[in-house]
């Protein structure tokens, strides 16, 4: 916002501000002892607004400054309508927990139930190894030391040689501690619910399936590139895909009624960067990044 000048005290600022509003310029007027301070919000309009001010001071009786009242009112009504539409469309992820309505989000619920069931199975000493061997990207991840250079083909054997293609997806159901599953389920509920209720179960299924495969493959590729072979899992890659999808949808198709609140966007990006710092321990950061890229691409593609 920039000040364009000062109107003398004896001049009425209303006709002039109506004139600027009708031209599409957002203004503000402050009363001061020396006169009326006139401000313009968009600096791109600064030169023209200053020229209009000079002309108004020179010829305040000019009819063009006194016939803009109705036009200015129409512009203000349209601005109010757009502001209200934006407020109606903005979605704060924190509020999604207030809207259970499980029937409209069956896939979101199913993903959460499966993740929670697997989490409790992992707590069982008799079931843990069997579950991990079944759901990990490769059962070899349980056999090798934490840092070991191996042939990538060995890690892919379960999928390519034994045909266990479910392993491309199933690592998303593995959560290794309480905080891990808690945050992922909260985010999945908020984001998955929005997508499933707004665009349908099929859309969510495609996003989840493709982002799960991409994030899991991306994580194993990254781990192999740095010779770090460790078990990984979690819904985080999918969660970041859903976030990226909604984030871009709000930017390229705001008319569809879903715009993430800026604080929600900032929170998700903050956690992405925080996890990369390593202060929270070993985390599948490659899966997060790949998932986010997948979601952003689908959102930009108006899928």
Helix/strand layout:
Elements (H helix, E strand, L loop, with lengths): L1 E6 L5 H10 L4 E6 L2 E6 L5 H13 L10 H21 E2 L14 H17 L5 H8 L16 H9 L17 H22 L1 H25 L10 H17 L6 E2 L1 H16 L7 H16 L3
Parallel strand pairs: 4-5
Antiparallel strand pairs: 1-3, 2-3
Report what the structure shows.
The protein has 11 helices and 5 strands. It is mainly alpha-helical and 303 residues long. The protein has 2 domains: 88 residues, Alpha-Beta Plaits, CATH 3.30.70.2350; 209 residues, Up-down Bundle (Rhomboid-like fold). The strands form 2 sheets. The protein has a 3-stranded antiparallel beta sheet with strand order 1-3-2. The chain has a two-stranded parallel ribbon with strand order 4-5. Strand 2 and strand 3 form a beta hairpin.
């Amino acid at each position: 916002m920039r000040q364009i000048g000062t109107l003398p005290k004896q001049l009425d600022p209303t006709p002039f501000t109506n004139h600027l509003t009708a031209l599409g310029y957002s203004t503000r007027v402050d009363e001061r002892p020396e006169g009326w301070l006139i401000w313009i919000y968009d600096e791109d309009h600064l030169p023209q607004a200053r020229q209009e001010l000079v002309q108004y001071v020179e010829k305040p009786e000019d009819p063009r400054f006194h016939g803009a009242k109705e036009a200015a009112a129409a512009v203000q009504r349209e601005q109010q309508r757009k502001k209200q539409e934006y407020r109606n469309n903005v979605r704060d992820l924190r509020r999604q927990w207030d809207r259970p309505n499980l029937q409209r989000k069956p896939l979101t619920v199913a993903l959460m139930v499966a993740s929670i069931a697997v989490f409790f199975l992992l707590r069982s000493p008799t079931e843990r190894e069997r579950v991990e061997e079944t759901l990990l990207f490769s059962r070899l991840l349980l056999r090798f030391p934490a840092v070991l250079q191996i042939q990538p083909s060995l890690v892919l054997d379960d999928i390519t040689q034994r045909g266990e293609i479910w392993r491309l997806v199933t690592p998303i159901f593995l959560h290794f501690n309480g905080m891990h599953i808690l945050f992922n389920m909260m985010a999945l509920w908020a984001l998955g619910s929005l997508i499933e209720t707004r665009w349908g179960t099929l859309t969510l299924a495609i996003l989840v399936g493709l982002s799960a495969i991409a994030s899991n493959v991306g994580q194993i590729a990254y781990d192999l590139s740095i010779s770090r072979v460790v078990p990984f899992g979690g819904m985080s890659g999918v969660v970041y895909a859903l976030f990226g999808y909604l984030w871009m949808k709000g930017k390229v198709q705001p008319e569809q009624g879903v715009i993430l609140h800026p604080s929600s966007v900032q929170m998700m990006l903050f956690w992405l960067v925080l996890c990369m710092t390593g202060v929270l321990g070993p985390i599948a950061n490659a899966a997060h990044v790949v998932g986010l890229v997948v979601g952003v691409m689908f959102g930009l593609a108006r899928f």
